[in-house]
Amino acid sequence: MIRALGWVLRRDLLLAFRRRGDVANALVFFVIVVSLFPLGVGPEASQLRNMAPGVLWVAALLACMLSLARLFAPDHQDGTLEQMLLAGEPLVVLVMGKVISHWLVSGLPLVLIAPLLGLQFDLPGDALAVLCVSLLIGTPVLSLIGAVAAALTLGVRGSGVLVALLVLPLYVPVLIFGAGSVGATAAGTGAEAHLLLLGGFLALALVLAPWASAAALRIAME
Amino acid sequence: MIKSERFSWFHFSSPQTFYPLAGTLQPWFAAAATLLCAAGLYLSFFVAPTDAQQGEAYRIIFIHVPAAWMSMFLYLVMGFWSGVGLVLNTRLSSMVATALAPTGALFTFIALWTGALWGKPTWGTWWVWDARLTSELILLFLYIGFMALQAAIDDPRRADKAGAVLALVGVINVPIIYYSVQWWSTLHQGASVSMKSAPSMATTMLIGMLIMALGFWMYSIAAVLARVRCVILERERHTEWVMEEVGGQA
Amino acid sequence: MLEARQLECTRGERRLFRELSFRLGRGQLLRVAGANGSGKTSLLRIMCGLLTPSAGELRWRGRPIRAEREEYSRNLVFIGHLNALKDDLTALENLQVAAALAGMSAEAERMLAGLDRFGVAHCAELPAKVLSQGQRRRVALARLALSPAVPLWILDEPFSALDVGAVLELERLLTAHLASGGMVVLTTHQEVQVVAHAVLRVDLDAHTAALLAA
Fold first, then answer.
1. Domain that holds residue A147
2. Nearest-CA residue of chain A relative to B178?
3. CATH code (residue B136)
4. Looking at residue A25, what is its pLDDT?
5. Please, where are the H alpha helices in C55-208?
6. C26 and C59 belong to one structural domain
7. What's the per-residue H, E or C state across A23-72?
8. How many CB pairs under 8 A join A and B?
9. Rounded to a whole number, what is the distance in Å from the CA of A209 to chain B's nearest CA?
């Protein structure tokens, strides 16, 4: 089982590496969206500082959501997803492999680049650190929940917008506590409670989401 | 399961047998709904005392709160029947879930609308980001997502099952979303601006809301029974009994 | 070994076939025939366990496949219309992933041997997207060369896009597999020269199953 997960992971990472452009696009999207906000609300420093946690988190959320289109759809189109369902390994394991690689390619870069963007919003150092940690814990949750929505909408017309519609309400708790943790740090109150809750969401998502995604994939492939 | 020589509950679990049952029951629920809602409205608008702080405008709460209750309750019921349809592979349960969604969405919409109507005279704005209204807004998105997913999938059985997975994921998330939004709201605004700062409940007010809630519940059952009949006719339109029912018109 | 009982398939609103029953034993070839749209691919997908029939059941060695889907999947190889190749992976890498997911060893030499049987060993280091249709089909079929131990081969139009040499090679492979006690299910529009202990033909147009002596 671990061997199969390893192969799926390796395969997806190799594919992402060979299509670096596609992957970079999501990252660029993140940067652009974040930069739009000061253009929209004005460059006044204290206002930007207040907005920063929310803006950064919403942009990360949207970037993650956009990258969901790469998770299952290409495999569905060329028939490799079908082969995964026939693999004789538990589908849950293979799905987990895909989600991990999706996060490594689409989520982790956001975590790494977020501090730079936070500086644009004049966030203090400790808030930047908490931003990174909150994104580190939160983006896997986004990938996991997103996988369920991506699986449900496989091959459905209008699936791009439909995925957004399905997934964004479910992202709300992660957003609230993710942005909340940074806001709390900037305001001086502690962020432990938020981060612990985010950790709780991650644990719950790890248990439930791969299973729901596998069920949704089987339903979609019927 | 209760099973006598003539009667078994499972008898009604096929669309063909449920259709006439729904037809018979529906008018009774509709009548009950009319009576209860009329009584509730009478209580709320004429009998309940005027509130010292909020004047007459607060009366909208008699519609707002029961509608909000129903919207959440119906989501759970929808999730339940969806889940039953997924696990037991029954068509009728899934059809009931599909029929529940628009009514649930309607109550969510009513809750939002009445919330705005309450907010305007009370706080001067058409919208407040308080915990309940925000949760209702997200619940509306969940309902719309469910309906959109089912509408986008052509194959009815796949639509049923996909909707079921979504509804079940939603059911787990609704409490999480609700408490997250609660927390968010108290943190940012404090308790000053809140639908919860309704006047402390006099007994008449509480009874009024309960009667309205009951009336809405009867209405929901009536509406869902009517809608599920339409869903059954559409889904089973190639079977003999439907063709006879509709008089052979394609 | 593979037994179908009263299979019925309804897609959307069309009933494709009903009350379809057959038995496939070792060394037997099942050929599914029927006009376009008669449900051949659906039947194959039911046999893979990807699609649930609206009625009836499928049994493998006496046990319903629904009960042990993973176990059943390990006993079959499915090659469908789509080649299941990733454009950005080389032929070799594609085959390695397929082998690994099937629980087999992914050693490069074994893969190359498989590719060689279908004459595409020279494509091993080329990404699939630069290969021609025929070459891609052959890379997809190379999996079969690696799977003699897998009892049930389910193939959807395996001969499409193949040239004469590849057709012969595939026929040879199928014959060898059947001779060693394997089973093959396939759909094809062409006449196939495969020697089998028995050739079963399911004609979906007529909903009949007839056993034809080889």
1. 2-220
2. A173
3. 1.20.120
4. 85
5. 69-73, 91-101, 108-117, 133-146, 164-179
6. yes
7. HHHHHHHHHHHHHHHHHHHCCCHHHHHHHHHHHHHHHHHHHHHHHHHHCC
8. 71
9. 9
Distance from CA of C12 to the nearest CA of B (A): 5
For residue C8, what pLDDT is reported? 87
Do A52 and A118 touch, CB atoms closer than 8 A? Answer: yes
| CA C32 – CA C16 distance, rounded (Å) | 14
Domain membership of residue B6 (yes or no) is no
Q: Is residue C82 part of a domain?
A: no
Is residue C14 within 8 angstroms of chain B, CB to CB? no
The domain total for chain A is 1
pLDDT at B191: 43
Into how many domains does chain C fold? 2
State how many domains chain B has.
1
Is B156 near chain C, with CB under 8 Å? yes
Contact C65, C49 (CB under 8 A): yes
Q: Domain check: are C31 and C125 in the same one? A: no
Could you tell me the residue range of the domain that residue B132 belongs to?
28-234
CATH code of the domain containing C160: 3.40.50.300
Quick one: C113 and C61 in the same domain? no
Of C71, C84, C103, nearest to A83 by CB-CB distance is C84
Q: How far is CA B222 from the centre of its chain?
A: 12
Task: Indicate if C26 and C44 belong to the same structural domain.
Answer: yes
**For residue C110, what are the domain limits?**
88-143
Phi, psi of C127 (to 5 degrees): -65, 145
Residues in chain A: 222
Residues C117 and C174 placed together within one structural domain of the fold:
no
Residues of chain B with pLDDT under 50: 1-5, 191-194, 197
- Quick one: pLDDT at residue A23? 80
For A85, name the nearest residue in chain C, comparing CA atoms only: C50
Give pTM, 2 decimals: 0.89
Query: Do C40 and C18 share a domain, yes or no?
Result: yes
Residues of A in contact with C93 (CB under 8 A): 11, 14
Whether C108 is covered by a domain: the verdict is yes
At A169-214, the pLDDT tens digits run 999 999 999 999 999 998 888 889 999 999 999 999 999 999 999 9
Contact B156 C11 (CB under 8 A): no
ipTM of the complex: 0.90
Which of A158, A162, A219 minimises the CB distance to B165? Answer: A219
Contact A222 C51 (CB under 8 A): yes
Helix or strand or coil: residue C4?
Answer: strand
Residues of chain A with pLDDT under 50: none
Q: Nearest CA to A12 among A86, A84, A111, A60?
A: A84
Q: How many Å apart are CA C56 and CA C71, to the nearest integer?
A: 20
> Per the domain annotation, does C80 fall within a domain?
no
Same domain? C94 vs C135? yes
**What pLDDT digit, counting tens, does each position of B144-190 carry?**
999 999 999 988 989 999 999 999 999 999 899 888 888 888 776 55
List CB contacts (< 8 A) between C12 and chain B: 154-156
Any C CB within 8 A of B240 CB:
no
Instruction: Compute CA distances A181 → A33, A34, A116, A128, B75, whole Å.
Output: 21, 19, 18, 11, 30
**CA distances in angstroms from C32 to C44, C47, C88, C156, C175, listed in the order given:** 9, 12, 33, 9, 17
Burial class (CB in 10 A: 0-12, 13-18, 19+), B55: exposed
Indicate which of A1, A3, A80, A92 best probes the interface with C, i.e. most C CBs within 10 Å of its own CB: A80
User: Is the Cβ–Cβ distance between B94 and B160 less than 8 Å?
Assistant: yes
